[in-house]
Amino acid sequence: MTDGGPIRELLQRLEDAMNSRELDRLDDIVAEDFVRHCQATPDFDVRSREDFKDFLRRNTASFPDNVQTFVQVVEDGDRAGIWTTYEGTQTGPLGPFPASGRKTLFDFGGIVRVEDGKIAELWVTWDNMTILGQLGHLPSG
């Protein structure tokens, strides 16, 4: 991610904390009442910073080597649009799907809202079919 404004800097800190697995750093980055909106993961109701940390821990249990890279960030007032690359090897279960040992690489988009210098809200979306296909969890046709 390139240098830029305050939201871009906050997102760089978020990226670093997630990729280093130093989730305590999120206390200075993510609001306590943070909300994550994602239709692709309806079983994860994230309504606090602690819920978000739990979500990230579960993700790391499925993909211990995961790396998220914010490739594009476009700031607009108290919000920013993000385009992110996710890469990881599924060595743990993913919902009902057993570990596949396969790697996934996909892009996803999102919008963050910042309030009082912290990320207060995240809307994120991706294509589950692409991910499940890469991991071998879909029937071949």
Automatic annotation (TrEMBL):
It comes from the Bacteria. InterPro entries: Cyclase_SnoaL-like, NTF2-like_dom_sf. PANTHER family: ESTER CYCLASE (PTHR38436:SF1), POLYKETIDE CYCLASE SNOAL-LIKE DOMAIN (PTHR38436). This is Ester cyclase. It comes from Actinomycetospora straminea. The lineage of its organism: Bacteria, Bacillati, Actinomycetota, Actinomycetes, Pseudonocardiales.
